[in-house]
Write a structure and sequence with these properties.
There is one protein chain. This protein starts with 12 loop residues before the first helix and ends with a helix. The protein folds into 2 domains: about 15-190, Glutaconate Coenzyme A-transferase, CATH 3.40.1080; about 205-445, Glutaconate Coenzyme A-transferase, CATH 3.40.1080. It has helices at about 15-20, 25-30, 50-55, 95-105, 115-120, 155-160, 205-220, 235-240, 260-265, 290-300, 310, 315-320, 355-365, 420-430, 435-445, and strands at about 40, 65-70, 85-90, 110, 130-135, 145, 160-165, 180, 185-190, 230, 250-260, 285-290, 305, 325-330, 330-335, 340, 345, 345-350, 370-375, 375-380, 385, 385, 405-410, 410-415. The protein is of the alpha/beta class. The strands form 6 sheets. Strands 13-12-11-10-14-19-23-24 form an 8-stranded mixed β-sheet, sandwiched between helices. About 25% of the residues lie in helices and about 20% in strands.
Amino acid sequence: MTDEIKLGTNLSANVLTSYKRKLVTAEQAVRVIKSNDNIIVHANTAFPMTLIEAMVARKDELHNVQLIHCLSVGKLPYLRPGMEGHFNHRSYFMGGEARVAVGEGRADFAPIYLYEFPHLVSRGHIHVNVVLVHLSPPDEHGFCSFGVEVGIIKTATEFADVVIAQINPKMPRALGDSFIHISKLDYIVEVDVDILELAQGSREVEPAVAEAYRKIGENIASLIEDGSTLQLGIGVIPDNVLKYLGDKRDLGIHSETFSDGIIDLVERGIVTNSKKGIHTGKIIAGFVLGTRTVYDFIDNNPLIEFHRQEYVNDPFVIAQNKKMVAINAAMEVDITGQVCSDSIGPKLYSGFGGQVDFIRGAARSEGGKPIIALASTAKNDTISKITTMLKPGAGVTTNKADVHYVVTEFGIAQLWGKTIRERVKSLINIAHPKFRDELEAYAKSVKYI
């Protein structure tokens, strides 16, 4: 066994020998990376920083290396100004640093439904030269877990020319379709570092804003029936929904991701997963975003199965759950029901993520409810987020035909099957009262009402 990581004493001799043979330093491992390579990086809070820093230290030797991933938490050293030409970043969902770099023209963004992203690799659209992963130590059979992010990375490892693994005893052993055997790893680098965290609910907001989101959570909860399966995600809206589920029974979880908030519902017997149409008795997700609390919760927990995102987010799979409730946020919604969730006007902000995947899956579910939620205003009630039209340059993330429910702090608009006249009236009714006359006047001027 090594000095840095204490491997289990029940490892077979063959597993231990194979492990030691592949063990190198981070600097040695990243020597395999060449100019013009495509590199897929383990994303979200699994970001393999030790490997990334070793790669970036070689910047003067490398040119046009393309880094490909979805959301990543923490600092991205290859996105620092001055790295252009050495490293090119291709993001399929933008976090803070990628958002800035894309906005300044130093990185690229590619819009795609989350369940389709792995198909770019499996169908040969992207050739992966190297994949950088962050794994748990091997079990007695030689299998390492992808831990906090399985959904995007699993398929990438199966099509990469070279797999470099950062092995960390602090990475939880997530169950499900979440393992890779050490025989599939080309280089192993041992680390013992804290897994990155993304705490929810830590940002302080004005009391009026907090109250608006409390009401949104209460309104959404009123739509959730006993026996529903939920896609909650993370952020202020799902956090507030969770507060109002205490009287529900036999809820299930099928979600691209979840965070610390569901733990209490599991422990109180509210989330049982007993009424799901698929994977009965199991929480299904592609990854987690949260703190060490949720990492410890998923560790070796047979209640939870992690699967590839092309499976978890497939609308056909989602639709097999009964009473599927998909809860997704928006930047703005126009009065016909068009939803923008990924940009502010032409300024790219995040990405499609799984919104459309789950909206469409929930729509096909027996008793399903696809929900778009947003506060009615922004910037101290000076901007209405229920708008006459989306901002110039804004993208339509979810089109009006896909939208069934829109929820604000002022109520619920049910739009499915409604005429434009009916939709407009319903959306004006849940807009902030300060803007309703303005919205109504516009609607009359264009003969919507």
